Amino acid sequence: MISKNMKILVEKSAGISALFSEGKRMREVLGEENVFDFGIGNPNVNAPLSVNKTAIELLETMDSLALHSYTDGTGIPSVRQAIAESVNRRFQEEYTGENIVMTAGAAGGLNVILKVLLDQGDEVLTFAPYFSEYDVYVANAGGRLIAIEPNVPSFLPDAKKLEEAITPKTKAIIINNPNNPTGVVYDVQTLGKIAGVLKAKEKELGTSIYLISDEPYRELVFDGATVPYIPKLYGNTIVAYSFSKSLSLPGDRIGYLTIPSTVQDFQEVVFGAGVANRILGFVNAPVLQQLVVAKCCDEKSDIAFYDKNREILYSALSQYGFECAKPQGAFYLFVKSMEEDEFAFVNKAKEFGILMTPGSGFGCKGYVRIAYCVARDTIERALPSFEKLAKAYQK
Ligand code: PLP
Q: Which UniProt keywords are listed (predicted)?
């Protein structure tokens, strides 16, 4: 018999599992060419050529034992150093390898850092809408995720609401920039206010509040938007980064945590992260992928492809009467449901072959998420169906 906890998790993840099976069911009923699946955020542009080339070169030239051996839980020292230098070039910092911990993607990094920081019952704040897996990641470490209600329609984090939500039990806050599911990029003024609140609350309560910045979409920005580097605003920040989206390597499970020396109890946090990597079951981030990203970390997959998808879909949907803020990052549109119950709206869309994700899963009812990381052809062929869907509500 599976545990009660697992039963709850299975129920919670039913939405995502349902997306996979629903897509399959719809393809069987409507035919492959009549289904437009915007459900899952799986990158669909190739990794840069240099990624495969580097992997092949490593496999052909490196000593087999060295290439396939266990490494330190924090990562290979030369890789940590190469990543630190890349981060320094981009954000004018002075990190060394000591500030970097290699992880199995951002999911690995988030689970590791939460395991390091949380005691049973500690509270972690986040701003809705938020990546639904945060609930589970925080629970895995014995904590409790508290979502601050969405700030509609800008979806920018609200410093005032944060101030009201912080309690003596608040151990951390997770911010995701650019945001999944809204595609909104948090600007420096907004983040500056958040930093101000955190500093004041740390002083008032005599506690340490860690800011965890989840940044797997950092490179996916459009219209010249920039993603502020939060450690410059708030020293007690840990950044979770991933190559899943920037290099299109979601299945290779590679990313890293940046733990600046300004983080409270920095040495212990880094050491703890190495231990957490081991005891959570990752043991170490995949060695081949560590070595690949050490060489390819300054490259990007074809971001312009997502930008074009965004332009086509956003302008068509606006023209058809859908309400949605133009996203500046990630590869999602967060669209207002055309009826109050967004589940009914999602079901209506299925009649036209369109599959999208209800906003409630992200803590924001009344909206739906459209993941536009799909083939261009899928977007172009889906437009008449979106138009019909809008018309169904305009009668
Ligand atoms: N955080 C957010 C906001 C995400 O959207 C995702 C994946 O889609 C992750 C973390 C996990 O990413 P990774 O594949 O790097 O573990």
A: Aminotransferase, Transferase
